[in-house]
Design a protein that fits this description.
By secondary structure, this protein is an alpha+beta fold. It is built from two helices and twelve strands; from the N terminus they run ββαβββββββββαβ.
Length: 198
């Protein structure tokens, strides 16, 4: 099930979370003033992060429930991906580096492109975007996937525990359902009550 966050864009939505050791500069990309729209974590850094969780550090509270630790969809050559909490990709360690490109299907813009031997990639835009995910290895295209919500299970999460905000967002959830013809579930805060389905 894909998860769609409905909220207005803020400066935080466009912030960079790239690990500069793992994300080489893309030719033609903007300089340091403009941040990439992606978070790249090499495998050894991911292990260090999980061990810091075990050491007792409390992670910051999330506005939405966290998605599964690993992406839920299987691609070729051990690639895993999904669109829960933005576009997420896990690439296994490989002899030849992977080249990954994320694009916005509606605008045609390339959001990010990088090469890495293995690791995790997560877009910093965590709300609904129709992503195109392209992966190459050794100069050969091995995977292209265009996100489409039609006939898919999609969840819109309303994180606020009050009734007013979800009521205000409900017409937009209905429009989303009508436009993309998905099987839509709207998840309300624990204090509000039941979860409507469309």
């Amino acid at each position: 099930m894909s998860s769609v966050a409905l909220h207005s864009a803020s400066a935080e939505d466009f912030s960079a979370k790239a690990d500069t050791r793992a994300a080489p500069k893309v030719p033609g990309a903007a300089g340091p003033a403009e941040a990439p729209a992606i978070s790249v974590v090499p495998p050894d850094h991911a292990k260090a992060t999980s061990s810091s969780k075990e050491s007792g550090q409390t992670p910051p509270k999330r506005a939405y429930p966290a998605p599964a630790e690993l992406p839920t969809q299987a691609g070729p050559k051990g690639v895993q991906f999904d669109f829960n909490d933005g576009c997420r990709v896990v690439l296994p360690e490989a002899a030849h580096p992977w080249r990954v490109r994320l694009s916005d299907l509606d605008t045609g813009n390339i959001l990010f492109e990088t090469e890495l031997k293995g690791g995790r990639i997560n877009s910093s835009k965590r709300y609904f975007i129709r992503f195109r995910l392209e992966i190459w290895q050794n100069g050969e295209s091995i995977f292209v996937h265009d996100y489409a919500a039609r006939d898919r299970e999609v969840m819109i999460q309303f994180p606020v525990g009050t009734l007013g905000d979800p009521m205000g967002w409900c017409p937009y959830a209905v429009k989303f359902h009508e436009r993309y013809r998905c099987s839509l579930t709207c998840a309300l805060g624990e204090k509000v009550g039941s979860t409507p389905r469309m």
